[in-house]
């Protein structure tokens, strides 16, 4: 069974940056990776307010959604103590990404990097979950998934076949310098190449 890498960290901990760097390093080493990265635009307070999906290696991008109540102009009101409003998603972006993932699987990609598996997938079974379920069944496909730590149990419950994979957990904090990122990427690549 191929390895599983979980990149676990809170919002703004560097999961997307690590996924992007990991993809670039793996591509440079001819490891045949494919990635769907979730880019976001943040409010001055650091909360994501607009989301886009980007596929790598092609760089094609699709608008994914905007936080309800955010118009794209003026300040974003995220007053302390007020729950953040949910995102209004453009489901055609998920359909596009799912098609891209299925194409990558058909091409025989060896490594799949999915950035920001969230409540939409794990609690509702929507978003990228149908494509992720298919990818999880591909026993020779290495999976690198980023998510918040509180969602790990839900992921493994929803996709129980992942439990039999060799697992590497990477916990991301708020700050990582270039040296730490370099060593983290090296550890992940070593885990992905280990055939034990």
> Within the CATH hierarchy, at the fold level, what is the topology?
Rossmann fold
Q: What is the distance, rounded to the nearest whole angstrom, between the alpha carbons of the first and last residues?
A: 10 Å
User: H/E element string?
Assistant: EHEEEEHEHHEHEH
Provide the CATH architecture: 3-Layer(aba) Sandwich
Oligomer: single chain
Low-confidence stretches: 74-83
What is the radius of gyration? 16 Å
Note the beta-strand portion. Answer: 25-35%
Mean pLDDT: 88
Q: Helix segment count?
A: 6
Secondary structure tally: strands: 8
Question: Rough shape?
Answer: globular
Helix content: 25-40%
Report the major sheet.
8 strands, mixed
Task: Name the CATH superfamily classification.
Answer: P-loop containing nucleotide triphosphate hydrolases
What is the number of domains?
A: 1
State the strand order across the main sheet: 5-4-3-2-6-7-1-8
Structural class call reads alpha/beta
Q: Which CATH class applies here?
A: Alpha Beta
Please explain how this structure is put together.
With 196 residues, this protein is an alpha/beta fold. The chain has a single domain (4-72, 87-193), classed as Rossmann fold (3-Layer(aba) Sandwich), CATH 3.40.50. Helix content is 35%, strand content 25%. It is built from 6 helices and 8 strands. The chain has helices at 15-28, 91-106, 119-124, 129-137, 152-158, 178-193; strands at residues 4-8, 33-42, 48-56, 61-67, 87-89, 111-114, 142-147, 167-171. Strands 5-4-3-2-6-7-1-8 form an 8-stranded mixed β-sheet, with helices on both faces. The longest helix has 16 residues, at 91-106. The termini are close together. Mean pLDDT is 88; it is low at 74-83.
